[in-house]
Structures are given as C-alpha cells and as structure tokens.
Amino acid sequence: MSFSKNIGLGFSSYGKAFNILFRHNLWWTLFIPLILYIILLFTGFELKDQLAEYLKSTILGATNLENADFFLSGFLKGAVSWIIGISFTIIFFFAFSFFGGYLIIILMSPLLAYLSEKTEQIVTGKNYPFNIEQFARDIFRGILLALRNMLIQTGIFLGILIIGFIPVLGWIVSIVSSIFIFILSSYFYGFSFMDYSIERQRLSISNSVKIIRKYKWTAITNGGIFGFTLLIPFCGASIAPFFAIVSAIAASIAMTEIHQTENISNEQSKNQCSIVS
C-alpha cells in the first residue's frame, strides 16, 4: 500500500468510525470517557494544587517570608504564589500532553478492546464468542503495549533533550524535535489502537511491530488525530477520551481492510507474509 493510500486509509476510517458509533448504537460508550474525564480532571488539579502548595510553603519557610512583615513582604508572597501556580499549570499541561494519551489508553483499555472487537463484527459479520480469558488478555496486552510505547517515547525524548544542550547541533535539533516527537507519539498511539485487531489474530507483539511498521502512515494518521486533541489548550483533556473511542473504532476498520489487502497480496505472491496465520 502506497504512502498516499496509507494516509487516505487513516482518514477515511475515521469518517466511517463516526458512522458506526452512532448508527450501531454504540453512542452509550461516550458516557464512559465523560466519567473518566471528571475523575482525571479533579485528580489532576487536586494533585497539582497539593504540590504547588507544598512547594510554596517550603520556599516561604526557607526564605522566612512566611512571617515577614516588611513593606514588600505581601507583594513577594503574592509573587511567589503566582509564579508557582502558573509554573505548575504549565507543567501539568505539558505532562498531560506527553503522558495523558497513554494514561487514557491504559484506563480505557477494557472499553477500547470491546469497541475494536465490536467494530470488526459490524464490518465483517464475523462473530467472536465472548471469552473472559481472551478479553482479559486483550486488556493486559493493551496496557503492556501502551507502557512499552510510552517508555520508548520517553527514552527518545530524553535523548533529544540531552542533545539539545549541545551548541549548534542542539539548536537544529530543537527546531525539528517538536514535530518529530508529535509524529512519534502519533505512531505509538495508532500502534496501540490498531494492535487490538492484531491481538485477535493471536499474533505476538513482535509480529505486531512488523505489521504496524509496514502501515506506519496509517498508524500515524490514526494516532495523530487523537494526539492533536491532547495539545488543545484547556479543553484537550475533556475531548481526548472521546476521540480515543473514535480512534479505536477507526483503527479496527483500517485493520480489517489491511487484513483483506494482505490476504489478496498473499494470493498474488507467496513471498509475502500473511497477517492472519
């Protein structure tokens, strides 16, 4: 499949995903991200406020500003509180942008596994009898894969960060690194969504890596739409969980077509490996 077809499949599957979501009565799943969003919102802001308050108390205590009563003491206390509050808000935003996607995928893995299987049933007509053991394996693999991808991305990010301190080379790297990190995270997000379909074929993660690399631009397109929502200031945290649902459905649609393409290719050439074994 060519580069343009890979990207086209990623976008077209998204359009079909919305159709399946509402035409096949899967809209009720949108309430689950709503609950998740409320939990993440209150937990995240509570943790941010607690850390900010602890740091503020530590700084004021270490500098004796806590009990100071000179002319500018009130202004300095306010400035410290404001700087810490703004700093932690920015840190919280960037931390959620970087790790939030994986957190959502991990917490929603049972729902994403269900939606991926349900989508394939709708598209192909093939029924998968419910098996609690297999369902648990799907969830565990989804969590394991998300953690794997997050660790790899974090390692690459830290490597880029270290290179960024090198004169001249660091400047060049800093210019292109943000684009590269977004593409990389999009690939890993799409990887996580698409792997649910590969798991149903009883293939290992190593085989899944080979398949997703072959269709990397489909994965990047799928994950990129989800990843973009994480970057939207203020409302990214509220809409990203909903787009995780659409992304999982779209990934299953795309993988169904990829399965069919691979099978056709195998009939034409015995040298190519089949996705479905």
One letter per element, helices H and strands E, the order comes to: HHHHHHHHH
Helix/strand-derived class? Answer: mainly alpha
How does the major sheet shape up? none
Mean pLDDT across the residues is 80
As a whole number of angstroms, the C-alpha radius of gyration is 23 Å
- Proportion of residues in helical segments: over 70%
Rough shape? elongated
Q: Count of helices?
A: 9
Low-confidence runs of at least 5 consecutive residues: 264-277
- Strand fraction equals under 5%
Distance between the termini: 20 Å
Describe this structure in words.
The protein is mainly α and 277 residues long. It has one domain (3-29, 99-268). The chain has helices spanning 3-23, 31-62, 73-107, 109-124, 132-163, 169-199, 205-214, 216-230, 236-268. The two termini are 20 Å apart.
Structural features:
elongated; 277 residues; mainly alpha; disordered C terminus
Could you write a compact summary of the structure shown?
The chain has helices at residues 3-23, 31-62, 73-107, 109-124, 132-163, 169-199, 205-214, 216-230, 236-268. The protein has 277 residues and is mainly α.
Topology overview:
Layout: H1 3-23, H2 31-62, H3 73-107, H4 109-124, H5 132-163, H6 169-199, H7 205-214, H8 216-230, H9 236-268
Helix pairs in contact: 1-8, 1-9, 2-3, 2-9, 3-5, 3-6, 3-9, 4-5, 4-6, 4-9, 5-6, 6-7, 6-8, 6-9, 7-8, 8-9
